[in-house]
Amino acid sequence: MRKHILSMIRSKRFTLRPWWHVYLKYFSEVGHVTKRFNLWDSRLTQLFQGRRRRRLAKTIPALSAAQNHLLQELNSNGFCRTTLETLGIDHAVLSYLKQLSKPYENMTFDQVKASNPGKAKYYWTKMNRDWKADQVIYDTLAKNKFLLDLLSKYFEEIPYFNSFEYMYSPPFPAGRPFEGSQNWHRDNNQRKFIKIFFSPFPLTRKEGPPQILPARLSTDKYYTGYPRYMTDEELFATGINPDDQLFLTGEPGTIYLVDTARCLHCGSRSSAGRHQAIVTFNSTDRYASRSSIKREYARLAEPVNQAMMEMYEKSL
């Protein structure tokens, strides 16, 4: 019931009273005051783990010119674009994803919605459902030294591997209002939260790729509806030029790194089927409460995170 009410609030299905908007903005589970409390709570509960990760990050040698270029883009804009080749990742990972896509290629919007009963994000479905079978993803991305060194410098600590999801978004019915994460928002659970987007298929605007704004245009000055989702009309009314948004399009092998805690974004506005892989990393600093952490995700990700830490400790 609580999730349903919050979904209604964030999608703005009714007008908020001023006092309720103040509560949402400052004292709700993603309110500014609550976030500051949870940030300090995360630093206390992760005191020794955080120190260990920061200490290891300081031992990483100077980055290469290619890594520094990507790091500067991340720091300045909140996102950067690169390729599998630059990261040193074999294209076999794309072949694996194509195999996962086969059962979903002709799935309709109604079929996807029916497979997500009661879920707010009913407009996409997860295609990877076997954690062990996804080992190719962990071996090629979550243990990639080029990528992890770059992210360690960005987070200023060895990052946490959070999750891997491979999602299919069917063509969205024309004329139907966008809902949930199809509208503009920032991810409010972490201080820094990197999502890595890529696909084994070409992505054009018709597939509904992620749309983002640079960090400088994603502050509370423009995100006036925080913490709920904002429509195009609401966002552009704050002074954002539609030409400022970036569509994460590209050929297979194109990769985008986006800090979705800093950059306003939306997606799944598809007029053709979209196959999108998302790998996420975060730091020990969190804005979310302890109770909101997905324990199952953390348990499944633990072996990957342990292997990452062992890799860096062996290099000392």
Topology record:
Layout: H1 2-10, H2 18-27, H3 32-45, H4 47-58, H5 65-77, E1 79-83, H6 84-87, H7 92-101, H8 109-114, E2 125-126, H9 135-142, H10 145-155, E3 160-169, E4 193-198, E5 211-212, H11 232-236, E6 246-247, E7 254-259, E8 265-266, E9 274-282, H12 295-314
Antiparallel strand pairs: 1-7, 2-3, 3-9, 4-7, 4-9, 5-6, 5-8
Describe what this molecule looks like in 3D:
- This protein has 316 residues and is α+β, with helices and mostly antiparallel strands.
- It has one domain: Sandwich (Jelly Rolls), CATH 2.60.120.620.
- Helix content is 39%, strand content 14%.
- Helix 5 crosses helix 10.
- The N terminus is likely disordered.
Total number of domains: 1
Strand content: 5-15%
Average pLDDT metric: 87
The backbone outline, from C-alpha atoms, is: globular
Count of separate DSSP helical elements: 12
- What's the total count of β strands? 9
Rg to the nearest angstrom?
19 Å
CATH domain topology: Jelly Rolls
Report the order of strands and helices: HHHHHEHHHEHHEEEHEEEEH
Low-confidence stretches: 1-6, 8-15
CATH fourth-tier homologous superfamily:
q2cbj1_9rhob like domain
Report the CATH C-level class: Mainly Beta
Care to give the gist of this entry?
By secondary structure, the protein is α+β, with helices and mostly antiparallel strands. Helices cover 39% and strands 14% of the residues.
